[in-house]
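Morning run. Coffee first, then this:
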Amino acid sequence: MPSLDAAAGLLGKRHAAHLLRRSTFGVTRTLIESFALKTATQAVDELTAVTPVTTTPIDFKTNQTWVDNFQLPGINSDDFFLKHYVSGWWLNNALHDNTIHHKMILFNHQYWITTYESVTSEMYYDYLKLLEYYALGSYKTLAGKMTFDNSMLVYLNGTDNNKQSPNQNYAREFLELFTIGKGVQTGPGNYTNYTETDIQEAARILTGFKVRWNDNAFKDADTNIRCGIPEIVAHDIDNKIFSSAFDNTLIAGSNTDNGMRAELQDFIDMVFNKTETANAICRRIYTFFVSAHISPEVETDIILPLATELKNNNYVLLPTIKRLLASKHFYDMDSAIPGDEHIGGMIKSPLDLLLGTLRFFDIKPPDKLLHTEDHYEHFWKQTVIEFFLKGCGMPIFLPTNVSGYKPFYPVAGF
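And here it is:
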């Protein structure tokens, strides 16, 4: 039966390669040989020992960064191209990352989806830094921070959500795609886990949050990342009452900026207090790292225990990720038939294929300091992003819709 017990003994090369393929963007012979001599628990501890990214993207026309000064670095620069340099910066970091950090950034991106199409390169950079900051942190805390993220405020019209004309886009996707998921529709406007009335009330709570991307004065106190702000003049100050799906919870209205923050936190607490929210997130983790197929046994023996742990840990992802990746089930060691371990059976994304190929064959991009234009413009922008990733149907950080990249979302419980 499926088991979350830790895998015993040393990994060996086969299991080490499996773990590294799933948790990083590619493997090398040196890494496999090193991890083969570790237990699953030791290997996962090392993979999750992440550190902050300290580099910033560079504009090759000036050999300077621009993401912290709100000014394009040269009169001939085009912000459209600078967005590609932000993507190149992230891809280069992912290529050289021997931890799970960038895989988790992609995981959170898939489930807090935005695109860089309608925002500035600085806003795009800030969004990636926010995903990085909470890569293994609290998914629940990220929910609050993402509500203030300037890219998200633009992408799902949060900055246009005013008391005179509530916009439901972000509220709808917050419930349907980002957190609890719909469930089975049981009647008109009733999706088991929430109702259309809940979307309307959530939209009222979210009125008045505005974009503020071009001023260092507006930074989140915890992350020091630029963010939007609450503006009480645009906020619906009346009480909000939710349906029986949320136990008829009443969230008191407020007439202050800090009160708006308190309303938002009450809303987030209400959603994340529901067991199904934890279940939905753990199904996504399982789909991302293990398999798109979730059997009734896996639901009972893997998803539900992980969800209980996730909820009890205030939705901090790290303990849940570590337990899953170190488990017998991850390596199919819980199979009833000895020697019948089926691991590795997941179709790789274009991003995994590309970065994995570069790592395996030790293909290095042009040096970003000595050959900056070749590094950012010719290699990452033209060859990787525009030719390969777009051609393969995975235009990184530019998905076609709010559900994200199609191979991930049909099986994620939406």
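The beta strands are 209-210, 229-230, 240-241, 250-251. Good start to the day.
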